[in-house]
Amino acid sequence: AQKVTQAQTEISVVEKEDVTLDCVYETRDTTYYLFWYKQPPSGELVFLIRRNSFDEQNEISGRYSWNFQKSTSSFNFTITASQVVDSAVYFCALSEAGSGYSTLTFGKGTMLLVSP
Amino acid sequence: KAGVTQTPRYLIKTRGQQVTLSCSPISGHRSVSWYQQTPGQGLQFLFEYFSETQRNKGNFPGRFSGRQFSNSRSEMNVSTLELGDSALYLCASTLVGSYNEQFFGPGTRLTVL
Fold this sequence. Notes:
Helix content of chain A: under 10%
Oligomer: heterodimer
Number of strands of chain B: 11
Largest sheet of chain A: 6 strands, mixed
Order of helices and strands of chain A: EEEEEEEEEEEE
Helix content of chain B: under 10%
Radius of gyration of chain B: 13 Å
Number of helices of chain B: 0
Strand content of chain A: over 45%
């Protein structure tokens, strides 16, 4: 069965520090997508990135970067020079070809607190 | 383009009552999924509707049901509410075929007293 593990429940950093959020996944499907979502206090899940199982290229978007390694089933997320506005809960999620990609399996989330 | 809208945003009910939540997807999106978020269990998939048919269902009791209308709007219903049903209910819409990326609404926060 599919599973997503975010071992870090809560991380506290001071502004301008770099921070990495870990995500480890389990799936029997060879074709799948991985996602990161951000949930600010308002509650709405904000899409950050999607990566398919055949694309192990790392990606950088501004201060955000993602490292996908199939060999270790990990899809880690790094925020460089963190800012107070980055404070939120971050979720890693998986969708599989077996379910038609129509369901997301989420990790428990990592709460990031960035203090000034 | 308008995002996913959910109504109501907040709801307070008592045990034993039933509740209906509504979700309007992004225009052109025909798939709607529902998720329950609680502090203990996290985000859990409830069900997904596509073209008025339930395509996938999560591991929830039969008290949780849903439907989708011809305009893709979806409703979910919870009957005989229990205290444990207190949660944030999130709806997501998907443009099927476009990497199946799910766009989430702001959620309905249900409190059962």
